[in-house]
Amino acid sequence: MTDWRPPLALIGAWLGLLALLALTVTLAYVPLGAGNAVVALTIGTIKAGLVATIFMELWHRRGLTLVFAGAGLFWLGILLYLGSMDFLTRT
Amino acid sequence: MMSDTNYLTTDFTLRSWFLTTDHKRIAILYFASLIVFFFIGGAAATLIRIELATPQADLVSSDVYNRLFTMHGIIMVWFFLIPSIPNTLGNFIVPLMIGARDLAFPRLNLMSWYIFMLGGCTTLFAIFAGGVDTGWTFYTPFSTLYSNSYVIVAAAGVFIAGFSSILTGLNFIVTIHRLRAPGLTWYRLPLFLWSLYATSVILVLATPVLAITLLLMATERFFGVGIFDPRIGGDPLLFQHLFWFYSHPAVYIMILPGMGVINELISCFSRKQVFGYKFVAWCSLAIAAVGFLVWGHHMFVSGQSLVASLVFSFMSFIVAVPSAIKVFNWTATLHKGSIHFDAPMLYALGFIGLFTVGGLTGLFLACLAYDVHATDTYFVVAHFHYIMVGGMVTAYFGGLHYWWPKITGRLYSEYWARTAAVLIFFGFNLTFFPQFILGAEGMPRRYHVYPPEFQVWNVLSSGGATILAVAYLMPLFYLGYSAFFGKRAPANPWDAPGLEWQTSSPPPEHNFTTQPVVTRDPYQYNEAFQAEPQNA
Ligand code: HEM
Ligand SMILES: [Cu+2]
Questions:
Q1: Model confidence over B406-443: pLDDT tens digits?
Q2: A78 interaction partners in chain B (CB closer than 8 Å)
Q3: Which pLDDT value is given to residue B421?
Q4: CA–CA distance from A86 to each of A81, B165, B232, B324, B389 (Å)?
Q5: Is residue A63 less than 8 Å (CB to CB) from chain B?
Q6: What confidence score (pLDDT) does residue A4 get?
Q7: Would an 8 Å CB–CB cutoff place A86 in contact with chain B?
Q8: Contact A64/B204, CB-based, under 8 Å?
Q9: What is the mean pLDDT of residues B301-307?
Q10: SS3 of residue B56 by DSSP
Q11: pLDDT band at residue B529, thresholds of 50, 70 and 90?
């Protein structure tokens, strides 16, 4: 491992995740109606972004790594698309 | 040639085994562990078949019966079939086949075995502490609300073992990308590696979803959070969607490595290049990709929407195409080949027939109308056993016999090996073919009692299971004997061109004394091969 990163970035990201978790829990108790789901999902997406860029070190942007990360995202899309097809067309 | 130490004799201490990072020794650790799991799962199957020999309940109560088939399924799927070929034969052969010193991450490889054992012991604990009765599928709401058994502990074991799968998949992907010998281009890779590559992609992409699913199930069971229970805001089909999103691809985790082994065996014992190499190679990846689009065929009677069922049914027909291409190509490889009926070849031929029956009956089940009749009957049980046992376990034995001389440096008794191969084929068919008939006649799966008119077929099936059990025990003896007393194997007993045969048997600690360079396509066999290794 040549470019070993000082763990500072990792610790920062971890603290960031914890802060976002606290935010999720707090906001869950604020009645926003349908807004609650939107807020929770937005925070979730930010968390996933933190994990992907910092813990998974995707900012290195090496071709094959990105292909595999993209594949993960694409497969998540399949799960959501085919899965919601059932929920949306149920009679 | 006469370098006297090999990977088995470099060091004899226990420490050198349990802290090894040599892929060959880790493969042996996996072999040993999987034998144990296979026989525990097999013991459960034996009890099931004994109970089913008569229509009444004589051996076990319904509660115990539920625990038996659950234990059988969980152990066989996650602690035998999924790791079977990748972690044993794959671990041993991949670096040798590509001319590398080891896998890309040797320590990760060892860690993967420890994680696997931790998961296995956790699940075994759940089983022996009182068992689980949900079936291997952990369906909600039974698993979350009603089951009074060790659901969370058993699921935790499976969850943990999943990380081992992911690490192995990751290791193979990186190894195949980065460590190929000079000249070993993608289209010169033996097809075993293409299929393990496809398997690894599924392992990495699908296993996390299983982990999430089991975690959600445990969360609902333990904390009562509404995820699957509609009374507290959940969706009752969500569990099945998530579970099968993993588990259908997982059935391809369980068959692709077997298909890979069959390529090696068929070409070696027909002394021919595999017919349509590129098609077979890309079919592995096609199976891996399309296999993710069919999971809803397990949910045709669940209340899933008709639109979704139609799409999943259609996709299930599509996914059979690449498998069929492989079967046709193996058959074409045999055509005008110089065929040798050595033990590994007998297993390979058995595989082709049994896999084909399993695959074709999968198409029956993919038809919406027929599935309504056949679902949850013995027809489904027969379908997947034809593929998983008739296919994958047979391929595992075939590969084991083929590479045995390389792994142990010894030859086995060809006579006993052929006898076992033939017995397995007949025992298998006698066990599972009657189950197609039982299923078509409407006998449901997962009950320990049944109407007396089903007894004939059940007795045949239990009789076949006895033969199968004996046949599966035989290799333990003649291979066990060979490991210690067998005749020494030459480096290349099959006169095969693959890189794994270019080093001594057993290989030295770092596989090759000089870095091999590849200058030709795979499977360049010379037809003249005669020597069949015999153990006098
Ligand atoms: C040729 C492609 C295949 C097709 C079209 C197919 C189709 C199906 C369908 C429709 C079912 C659901 C039946 C029901 O529950 O009503 C099923 C069940 C099953 N299949 Fe296949 N299958 C195929 C290949 C495989 C392979 C390769 C494996 C394993 C290596 C496999 C293992 C299973 C298992 C384990 C089940 C039962 C799961 C359970 O309910 O416990 N199938 N198959
Ligand atoms: Cu399936």
A1: 999 999 999 999 999 999 999 999 999 999 999 999 99
A2: 292-293
A3: 97
A4: 9, 30, 21, 29, 32
A5: no
A6: 65
A7: yes
A8: no
A9: 93
A10: coil
A11: low
The CA distances from residue B269 to B262, B390, B446, B487, in Å, are 11, 20, 41, 22
How confident is the model at residue B536, as a pLDDT? 36
C-alpha–C-alpha distance, residues B388 and B194, integer Å: 20
Long-range contacts formed by B352-355: CB under 8 A, 24+ apart = B352/B262, B352/B327, B354/B386, B354/B387, B354/B390, B354/B391, B354/B394, B354/B425, B354/B428, B354/B429, B355/B255, B355/B258, B355/B259, B355/B323, B355/B327, B355/B386, B355/B387, B355/B390, B355/B391
Whether the predicted pLDDT of B2 surpasses 80? no
For residue B535, pLDDT over 50 is answered with no
B239 reaches A (C-beta below 8 A): no
B177/A79 touch (CB, cutoff 8 Å), yes or no: no
Residue nearest to atom 6 of ligand 1 (CA): B362
Question: For the purposes of burial, counting CB atoms within 10 Å of the CB of B119, is it exposed (0-12), middle (13-18) or buried (19 or more)?
Answer: buried
Q: Is A87 on the interface with B (CB under 8 A)?
A: yes
Cα–ligand 2 centroid distance for B392 (angstroms): 16
Asked if the Cβ–Cβ distance from A75 to B205 is below 8 Å, we say yes
**Per-residue pLDDT, B166:** 96
pLDDT digits (tens, 9 = 90+) for B8-34: 988 889 999 999 999 999 999 999 999
Q: Radius of gyration of chain A from Cα atoms?
A: 17
Asked whether the beta carbons of residue A86 and residue B235 sit closer than 8 angstroms, the reply is no
Q: Where is pLDDT greater, at A65 or A77?
A: A77
Residues with Cβ within 5 Å of ion ligand 2? B 248
Residue B457 has pLDDT above 70, yes or no: yes
Give the distance between the most distant pair of CA atoms in chain A: 57
pLDDT at residue B532 above 70?
A: no
Structure confidence at residue A3 as a pLDDT band (50, 70, 90): low
For ligand 1, atom 14, the nearest C-alpha belongs to B375
Query: Ligand 1 — pocket residues by CB below 6 A?
Result: B 137, 251, 254-255, 297-298, 316, 319-320, 323, 359, 362-363, 365-366, 371, 375, 380, 383-384, 387-388
pLDDT band at B534; cut points 50, 70, 90: very low
Query: B520 in a domain, yes or no?
Result: no
The domain tally of chain B equals: 1
CATH of the domain at B422: 1.20.210.10
- Point out the ligand nearest to the CA of residue B72: 1
In a domain, B7, yes or no: no
Atom of ligand 1 nearest to the CA of B363: 5
Spatial contact of B133 and B63, defined as CB atoms under 8 Å apart: yes
From the CA of B293, the nearest ligand is 2
Q: Name the residue range of residue B264's domain.
A: 21-502
The pLDDT of residue B1: 42
